[in-house]
Design a protein that fits this description.
Layout: H1 3-6, H2 13-17, E1 22-24, H3 30-43, E2 47-50, H4 54-61, E3 68-71, E4 76-79, E5 91-95, H5 101-113, E6 119-121, H6 129-134, H7 136-139, E7 144-149, H8 155-160, E8 167-171, H9 183-190, E9 198-199, H10 205-221
Parallel strand pairs: 1-2, 5-6, 5-7, 7-8, 8-9
Antiparallel strand pairs: 2-4, 3-4
Helix pairs in contact: 3-4, 5-10
Length: 222
Amino acid sequence: MSLQKDVQLDFNREDRIGLDEAIFCEGKTADQIAEILRQAHLKRHRFLLTRLSQEKQKDVHSLGDFDIDYDPISRTGFYSTPHNPLSEKQVSVICAGTSDIPVAREAMRTLQYYGHLAMEISDVGVAGLWRLLDRLDDIRIARVIIVVAGMDAALPTVLGGLVGQPLIGVPTSVGYGVAQGGSAALHAMLASCSPGITVTNIDNGYGAACAALRILKAAHNQ
């Protein structure tokens, strides 16, 4: 079976829901990704690439002259020009520890792809609560807040009791032993006593950013 038959892209998704189809690269071969980009080029279409490792990104480049804006920390790439940037930072992306930064950056890069430059606030986990309290004024400026945390994932619950904006929790796979690859963080967020927190799957910075974009779009259309 040819690669063209393997790939069926949804070029009209943005027209339906306001979000492009993202290309999840983990599990795809470099040849398959290259074919996706060739079809995108023919349609003059942009794409956000997620979970794209540095090694696979180099393999894709060896198969064609593809213009990919690549970020190794978040493992994301922009194929072609992303949406025009907005001047106002409407989203804050907050992470408990520096080990959570790759997931936070995936959220920020997704927002950037759609023209939203986010404020990043790193290393404000509750083990040093003063770090969070020192940044509360900055955090309250945002219209939507994404909170990325692993281990016991207490940060979304604490922040959910201090601010009133929509808050999206992203559990990460950071932590020892009983952290169980992020399961403990996920369960902690789902069991949070702070009302109204939205929770994504483990390490899903992309999904958190898309949730934030839907919230912003709904608020804009009111």
